[in-house]
Amino acid sequence: MGKTTTSAALAMGLAQRGHRTAVIDFDVGLRNLDLIMGCERRVVYDFVNVINGEANINQALIRDKRCDTLYVLPASQTRDKDALTKDGVGRVLEELAKTFDYIVCDSPAGIEHGAYMAMYYADDAVVVTNPEVSSVRDSDRMLGILSSKSRRAERNEAPIREYLLLTRYAPERVAKGEMLSVNDVREILSLDLLGVIPESKAVLNASNSGVPVILDTESDAGQAYNDAVGRYLGEDLPHRFLEIKKKGFFSRLMGG
Amino acid sequence: MASFSHAGADSPKPAFELKAATFTLPVIRLLGVDMDSVADQLGIKVDQAPDFFRNTPVVIDLSGLPPGAGQIEFPLLVGLMRGFGMIPVGIRGGTEEQHQAAEAMELAILGDAFVRRTPPRETPNPPEPRSTPRPYSAPVPPVGEESATASQRLVTRPVRSGQRVYAPGGDLSVIAPVSHGAELMADGNIHVYGPLRGRAMAGMKGDTSARIFCQDLQAELLSVAGHYRISENIPDEVKGVPVQIFLDGDVLRVEKI
Questions:
Q1: CB A141 to CB B180 under 8 A?
Q2: Can you give the pLDDT at residue B97?
Q3: What's A56's DSSP letter?
């Protein structure tokens, strides 16, 4: 669906704008964030080590080589997801909150333990969805959990601010009726969109090469993520890449 | 042997509290001892409202049996009810002999101080308008202004897939969308001022006069007092428009407003 790609891109976007940002991988056992961030060979300690007190937070955080306000806290590949305890996660987040402006929690798929831990302490939540019925319905379920199972809900505080990000959007397939349109998704979930990320080869290339796609400023996906970060920080930007690209004479000739 | 009453300075924290609580349970009032006809007729009721009986504690009332009705086959009856998803918890009324038979099946003997000795009805299968047995001790639906306002429930945020909202003893109003896979339940009416895509069940306690009102009907299931319609059986011309849903005899009607 693009949760990890999105976490990497949003974290990088926030950091590039000068905010001290940490991005945490909650997908214990199936870690991917370090790959997408291109720091997999620099992992020494991980999130679970910090929770268990086997390492301190500064030993485990990996500073990004491209942006010095961005740090990555990788997940453990060898542990079980139950290693994430509510108290432990709370302690680590509290510690990070002292020195960081933004903490991005990359949630695993599904609605089990790891996902609960990633969202429990959240102030804001970005729900990543694809323009297909099943994905949108799962997101709806997740939004329901966000509004009832978080710490804010338990303490009767203001609810988590919800944002919706649509990824893998292909206007050509929407026109053919194979995909839900932006308006369909907006209507079903009754939420406004933080961004619409077009289906793009750039995303795959970026993941494979360990460079968050937002750094690929030439690509439509990179630009769309950059817009999303801007909107999150309160800028008023129009949505781009919602229409079918008109193919020029030359590209039609080349079959591309 | 462990003891719960360790007195002294190091007495453990209390592990439980004993409290009394009142529950309203459905009562099945037996009018005969022929288990075959009970099985047949109960099966029809359960088919009409399967959700009402799933894991529902039920009391068996024996006060409606004619004198000298004979032995009740409790093992058969209990097995039958469990098969329909009910949890038989006890009996009420009946003779000493019946009590002993019930105790053998681990059914509680409940006090029958409040049993009204109403004679059984003339017809063995009366044309009952509702499909769920209405608990005898069910509170009278609130009428007056006070109780009506006290038992209403208002929801202003979207009801998401997987969420359930129940308004016990009154009306439920939702002024936000209700998603696929969400469930609205109310003992009284349900009002939805947004697209209704999930399930809505009014008259949960068997109130056949309960209605569902909605601005934009796209529901998966509608039900009033156990009579339900699934999306497939809702005509297209009433979808997406303001409608009301109510019981007309045994028929659940969906009408444009």
A1: no
A2: 80
A3: -
Is any Cβ of chain A less than 8 angstroms from the Cβ of B160? Answer: yes
CA angle A162, A98, A214 (to 5 degrees): 50
pLDDT tens-digit map of A165-192:
999 999 999 999 999 999 999 999 998 8
**A120 CA: distance to closest CA in chain B (Å):** 18
Structure tokens at B225: 């007092």
Residue linked to tokens 């709370």: A90
Question: Alpha-carbon distance B250 to A183, whole Å?
Answer: 40
Global model pTM greater than 0.90: no
Dihedral class, residue B8 (left if φ above 0, else alpha if ψ from -120 to 50, else beta):
left
Token representation of residue B46: 């359960």
Nearest one of A176, A110, A100, A104 to A145, comparing CA atoms: A110
Compute the nearest-CA separation of A171 from chain B (Å). 25
Find residue B165's DSSP bridge partners.
B184
Q: What is the pLDDT of residue A26?
A: 93
The ipTM assigned to this model is: 0.73
Dihedral sign of CA atoms B20, B23, B28, B31 in order: positive
Alpha-helix runs per DSSP H in chain A: 3-16, 33-37, 47-51, 57-60, 86-99, 113-120, 133-149, 151-154, 171-175, 182-189, 201-209, 220-232, 249-253
Amino acid at B7: A
CA distance A4 to A10: 10
A183 touches chain B (CB under 8 A): no
Closest by Cβ to B181, choosing from A141, A159, A190: A141
Q: Which residue has the higher pLDDT, B52 or A28?
A: A28
Distance from A187 to chain B by nearest Cα, in Å?
Answer: 9
Contact A145 B162 (CB under 8 A): yes
Q: What's B159's DSSP letter?
A: B
Distance CA A35, CA A220 (A): 22
Residue of A nearest to B159 (CA): A144
Report CB contact under 8 Å: A143, B158: yes
* pLDDT tens digits, one per residue of A36-74: 999 988 999 999 999 999 999 999 999 999 999 999 999
Q: How far apart are CA B47 and CA B45, in angstroms?
A: 5
Task: List the single residue in A with minimal CA-CA distance to B176.
Answer: A190
Give the domains, in start order, of chain B with CATH numbers: 20-116 (3.30.70.260), 145-256 (2.160.20.70)
pLDDT digits (tens, 9 = 90+) for B212-252: 999 999 999 999 998 999 988 899 999 989 999 999 988 99
Q: How sure is the predictor about B108, in pLDDT bands with cuts at 50, 70 and 90?
A: confident
Interchain CB contacts (distance < 8 Å): A and B: 36
Q: For residue A189, what is the nearest residue in chain B, using CA coordinates? A: B179
Residue with tokens 């890449």: A241
